[in-house]
TrEMBL record:
<keyword id="KW-1133">Transmembrane helix</keyword>
<dbReference type="Pfam" id="PF10935">
    <property type="entry name" value="DUF2637"/>
</dbReference>
<feature type="region of interest" description="Disordered">
    <location>
        <begin position="124"/>
        <end position="163"/>
    </location>
</feature>
<feature type="transmembrane region" description="Helical">
    <location>
        <begin position="71"/>
        <end position="91"/>
    </location>
</feature>
<feature type="transmembrane region" description="Helical">
    <location>
        <begin position="97"/>
        <end position="118"/>
    </location>
</feature>
<protein>
    <submittedName>
        <fullName>DUF2637 domain-containing protein</fullName>
    </submittedName>
</protein>
<dbReference type="InterPro" id="IPR021235">
    <property type="entry name" value="DUF2637"/>
</dbReference>
<keyword id="KW-0472">Membrane</keyword>
<feature type="transmembrane region" description="Helical">
    <location>
        <begin position="41"/>
        <end position="59"/>
    </location>
</feature>
<feature type="compositionally biased region" description="Pro residues">
    <location>
        <begin position="124"/>
        <end position="133"/>
    </location>
</feature>
<keyword id="KW-0812">Transmembrane</keyword>
<feature type="transmembrane region" description="Helical">
    <location>
        <begin position="7"/>
        <end position="29"/>
    </location>
</feature>
Length: 191
């Protein structure tokens, strides 16, 4: 199977699970809202708010982690909305362990799908640290030669002043030297 085919199959599975799980979760939240006295359109509004808020908070959590911003509040809200969706699934179920388990499957599948998709971040190489010299400057230590330089014949023209070498460290700035004077201090006017 080629990578392109595998990606297409994964996308189809993702859309099928997302559509079915989302439809079941939306329906359970809608039905629970209507059963407890809300008009039909408010039931759908509640379903949209609960289910899409979970997806939005997952995206927001990923964006905040990527930029290094705090995620505490967003994470807490994500858990709260996921539990609200799960509670709606369970409340609509037959009051038995299997009824609750089967009713929770769409919500749990939807949340697992969102988690897998949102945690699939591409690998990014670490950025170089600012104000750091490239690593290859220090890879090869300079070798000191002990052989004396060969004598060169004298040039008829004096060589130009060579350009200063790169400064490896800033020059130290010392305070001015204060030398005590041996003269006596005279107070008053001297004529």
């Amino acid at each position: 199977m080629t990578t392109r085919t595998e990606t297409a199959v994964r996308l189809v599975i993702l859309l099928a699970i997302g559509t079915m799980a989302g439809a079941a979760a939306f329906t359970h939240v809608h039905d629970l809202s209507v059963t407890h006295g809300q008009p039909d359109w408010i039931g759908w509004a509640n379903a949209v708010a609960v289910e899409l808020m979970t997806i939005y908070l997952g995206l927001e959590l990923r964006a905040r982690r990527r930029t290094g911003r705090p995620v505490g509040l967003v994470g807490s809200l994500l858990v709260a909305f996921a539990l609200l969706s799960l509670a709606a699934q369970v409340a609509e179920a037959e009051p038995s362990v299997w009824g609750w388990t089967v009713a929770a499957v769409p919500s749990l599948a939807f949340l697992a799908l969102v988690k897998v998709v949102l945690s699939n971040a591409p690998a990014v190489p670490p950025a170089p640290e600012p104000d750091q010299p490239p690593g290859d400057w220090y890879d090869v230590p300079e070798q000191a030669t002990t052989d004396p330089e060969p004598e060169r014949p004298a040039d008829p023209v004096p060589p130009a002043v060579p350009a200063p070498a790169a400064i490896s460290a800033p020059a130290a700035v010392l305070p001015p030297r204060v030398v005590p004077s041996n003269r006596p201090h005279v107070v008053g006017i001297i004529r």
